[in-house]
């Protein structure tokens, strides 16, 4: 059957079903489940015969909304919190892997720009990091302890201050997504040009490894989840620019909800990063193998939760739908 004929044949059913979902009509779970089964049948058909089509995207959205509504009509389980973190969010986040990749590439680009600008303009580092920080670090280098900045503040105060600041950055990335995603790109630009300048500064002083093994103990998670927060902002911007089959307002509301979930997911990771920066990074005397282990474990955790695990859940859900 041609796609146009398939759409014409079932369009009225889909619109009726969408109206039930959007208007929160009070129908029994059994009625909703019956409609859901019919939609999932259409979804399976579209996935087979019309891959990468607007029809498939539309039915995917309907099926997802229906699934959530069905389970909202049921009594909440005691493990709802666990379910969100382990199943619901990772599965939903699979849909935003493209935005995550874009946020990552933007971050790499601005890091490279920061490093290149620092290499070609001697005053650039000071303009980005500030004279106070640069002078203090130069003094620390002369005193034989380049990373002394991480030892100056009391552990708990540093942990709380860094964590709160990082969460603010994440919220800025998310909220500024309403500026068609341009605001999010601006926040990423500020942070990653600074990162590139910061790393080049130590490279120029012959301390790239010393700085990297220290900074990335906490920076691996911290920088990664800033990129993920950038993904949240791009999801919001994308929902405004490309509403697909939804009205622009409906698409925007969906984008805000999705972006907020992504930002919420970063909070525990920011807490971990803050703890590492406040209590662990200051121990610059630790052996290289331990620093490398912490960095590798942190990177593995981020990649698993935000990239590998969502893909696993998605493939599992597809297998279940086809049975």
TrEMBL record:
Annotated keywords: Membrane, Transmembrane, Transmembrane helix
InterPro entries (alphabetical): SpoIIM-like
Transmembrane segments: 100-119, 169-195, 215-237, 258-277, 289-308
UniProt keyword Transmembrane present: yes
PANTHER family: SLR1478 PROTEIN (PTHR35337)
Official protein name in the record: Stage II sporulation protein M
